[in-house]
Design goal:
Blueprint: H1 6-21, H2 27-33, E1 38-41, H3 45-52, H4 61-66, E2 74-76, E3 84-87, H5 90-94, H6 99-125, H7 134-159, H8 165-184, H9 195-212, H10 224-241, H11 243-259, H12 264-283, H13 289-293, E4 295-298, E5 301-304, H14 308-328, H15 330-338, H16 340-349, E6 354-356, H17 357-369, H18 371-395, H19 432-456, H20 459-491
Antiparallel strand pairs: 1-3, 2-6, 4-5
């Protein structure tokens, strides 16, 4: 297994370019500041007073506080207020909350895609089955960093003392725990993740590895039930992380459809994007997907339309296309969120009474301040599904071509690496050869570690794990977004 291969060189080059180019060229910054998104500026106190038909007080807000006058400036709610628009610029975006986390994650995902595409081309031209797939490592890291970003956002909700954000996260976490426990007991004849065969392969390989290390009496001190309970707990955690992204997606979807009411093609694409997680769920339901779509019943027999390997490849392609569709509609959802400022003003005009000018300014400004948070809530679930699918393809030994039959790499028998013996050296030789021997010994130990890892974590295990992860992220999005549709369409109107 070539450790210092061209893949590692390209990976290090991509990491260096990402670090050097981030301050100058950033896809995440371009996504928000390319001129297609516009924000609403809050009105000044002078503008509000002019609309209310009253004279602007000579004392500023700071002077009134210093003089002990705590009475805020108020205006009628039904004033003829229209907010001014302004394109989102880089200077505006730099002060947004979680902007640095957003920029780093999105740029890392872009470079991960580049490294993955390179490794796919490299594997298609060179037989590199014995090398470590660097592109798969980048994809797995993107999934982990995406979950970490969602954890940061959820911890922000937990620290908030206002509202019921903490209760919403806990409720969705418990609901996800119940759904996950039900899903994990479904037989493989209905949900074909491959978890059973994956866990069996993992346990068998661990026992073989333990015996090769001289631990003949050692056995796996866990059962499949314990592993499934732990996996259900992880699913509950992911469900809690995806609670607010699903609720936010429902709101931005409804607003985006309403905003593009005169563009039927965009509305169709928006509906297709919203229902894409449902399609992903169906792709792993064996009676519907593989048994029905891949074969046609002809009397008592059935004709195979698509082979099993081709169906696996088509399923990967469908998920990638659906993720690309959701990524392509990002601007419509973000603009629908920014339009909430004007939407709130229009709702305020229909109310009676007076409102403080500072409350109007705070409401309008708060919408823009959480732009990067909403962007992360929209993009991170898509990235989780996309890079889980890419990891499934790379680590599960699948193929993009519908003509090839993907092979499952068997468990590698762990062999003891031969020690690197130093050659006969003369006493007067330089220390360079000793350094080279130390490097060779280090590489040999790393090769031994990677061989041991590949002997335990086989493609059979990765197929089951990442298939279930992809399906579960889509399931959490379906649950939270459908509840969000019900909440915004019915509960908010009552």
């Amino acid at each position: 297994m070539a450790l210092m291969g061209i893949q590692l060189v390209v990976s290090l080059l991509a990491a260096s370019v990402m670090q050097r180019m981030a301050p100058h060229c950033s896809f995440a910054r371009w996504l928000l500041c390319n001129g297609s998104l516009y924000r609403f500026k809050h009105p000044s106190e002078g503008e509000l007073c002019a609309l209310a038909g009253k004279q602007m007080p000579k004392q500023t807000r700071k002077d009134r506080r210093q003089n002990g006058e705590n009475k805020p400036l108020t205006v009628p709610k039904d004033i003829d207020l229209y907010l001014d628009k302004a394109p989102v610029t880089v200077i505006d975006a730099l002060v947004l909350r979680f902007f640095l986390e957003y920029q780093w994650l999105i740029d890392f995902a872009v470079y991960s895609t580049g490294v993955f595409l390179f490794t796919e081309g490299y594997y298609s031209m060179v037989d590199a089955s014995k090398e470590v797939n660097i592109g798969a490592i980048w994809c797995v890291l993107t999934v982990l960093f995406g979950l970490k970003t969602l954890h940061t956002l959820m911890s922000h909700y937990f620290r908030s003392e206002e509202g019921g954000e903490r209760s919403v996260c806990l409720a969705f976490g418990f609901l996800s725990l119940l759904v996950a426990m039900l899903v994990l007991v479904v037989r493989e004849d209905y949900l074909e993740f491959g978890l059973e065969s994956g866990f069996s392969s993992l346990f068998d390989n661990l026992e073989v590895f333990a015996k090769q290390q001289g631990l003949a009496d050692w056995s796996i001190p866990v059962t499949k039930l314990t592993v499934k309970l732990g996996l259900a707990a992880v699913c509950a955690y992911i469900g809690a992380l995806l609670a607010f992204p699903g609720l936010r997606l429902a709101q931005t979807h409804l607003d985006a459809v309403q905003m593009n009411s005169d563009r039927p093609l965009i509305q169709i694409l928006l509906h297709m994007s919203f229902l894409s997680p449902v399609v992903i769920l169906i792709l792993w339901v064996k009676p519907i997907a593989r048994d029905f779509l891949a074969s046609a019943p002809m009397g008592k027999t059935s004709i195979t339309i698509v082979s099993s390997a081709a169906f696996d490849s088509v399923r990967l392609w469908i998920i990638v296309v659906l993720c690309a569709l959701r990524l392509g509609l990002t601007r419509y959802h973000l603009q629908a969120y920014l339009d909430l400022a004007q939407k709130w003003v229009e709702q305020m005009k229909r109310e009676a009474g007076r409102i403080a000018a500072v409350d109007i300014q705070r409401k309008v400004t708060r919408v823009f301040c959480y732009l990067t948070v909403v962007t992360l809530q929209y993009l991170v679930p898509v990235l989780l599904i996309l890079f889980s699918t890419l990891s499934l393809k790379a680590l599960g030994d699948f193929s993009w071509s519908t003509d090839e039959t993907p092979g499952v790499t068997p468990a590698v028998v762990m062999t003891t690496a031969s020690p690197v013996l130093p050659g006969s050296l003369d006493e007067d030789e330089d220390g360079m050869e000793d350094m080279e021997e130390d490097i060779q010994a280090t590489v040999a130990r790393l090769l031994e570690a990677f061989t041991a890892m590949r002997s335990i974590l086989t493609p059979i295990f990765f197929r089951g794990f990442f298939a279930f992860l992809t399906w579960w992220v889509a399931a959490c999005q379906v649950i939270s977004s459908l509840f969000g549709i019900y909440f915004h369409q019915y509960l908010m109107q009552n």
